[in-house]
Amino acid sequence: MTSGQRLVAFHRHALHPVVHQPTKPNGPHVTPLTYDADSEQQTHRFGLAMGQATPVGLTVALNGPLGAGKTRLVRAIVEGLDGSPQDVSSPTFVLLQHYAARVDVYHADAYRLTSETEFLDLGPEEWLTTPAIVLIEWGERVASSLPEDRIDLEITITGESSRRFELSANGPLSGTLLDNLRDLKSLR
Q: Is residue 31, in this structure, part of any structural domain at all?
């Protein structure tokens, strides 16, 4: 396939067409994943699947407007990791939360940070390099401080309770999550 060509893959039911493109010139081909949730129950199901499929050591940058459901998705991911969704709250004012689950989960929020220096003051080198899963709301605000191999997850509000989740992988570990999600029958 040449650099100008695109391969479109179709997935059954809730998974929609995705475009196969390299994330970097001459880099590995990583196919983004799009999931449309028509209800809060489908959003919950998607979060559970992400929790079950996320490899240890992965960072996920959650992006989307206020009210898109970033924290709601994190609750479902933590539940999918056998943690307590009741423990999950928006870290907007606390900035960083830690949840015990099958694997440690760190949940940060960059919304109120005014610079990447403030993010670095949270000590991300300690929790971005541990065998944990890191979920960062408003991750685009601190993208240059995050691992290159991460998931960038864009949430779009498509209706009162419907959302579109667009996941892009930036390396082999993050690509594993997308492959794992595609293999899950619960999402078909």
A: no
Write out the E strands in the chain. Answer: 7-9, 18-22, 29-30, 33-37, 59-63, 96-99, 105-109, 133-137, 151-157, 163-169
Q: Is the full-model pTM beyond 0.70?
A: yes
Q: Is the pLDDT of residue 65 over 80?
A: yes
The stretches of 32-169 forming alpha helices (DSSP H) are: 40-53, 70-80, 116-120, 124-127
Range of the domain at 144: 38-187
- The predicted pLDDT at position 14 comes to 36
Distance CA 155, CA 61 (A): 11
Is residue 13 situated within a structural domain? no
Residue-wise pLDDT tens digits, 22-44: 334 334 557 899 999 999 999 99
- Domain for residue 7, yes or no? no
Domain tally, the chain: 1
Q: What is the CATH number of the domain that holds 139?
A: 3.40.50.300
